[in-house]
Amino acid sequence: MDIKNNYKNESIDKQKQSGELSSTAFNPQTNEEKPTKQKKRQATEEQLNNPFHGVKLVQVLERLVAHYGWEYLGDRVNIRCFINNPSMKSSLGFLRRTAWAREHVEDIYLEMLDEKEE
Question: Residue 6 and residue 10: Cα distance in Å, rounded?
Answer without folding.
Answer: 6
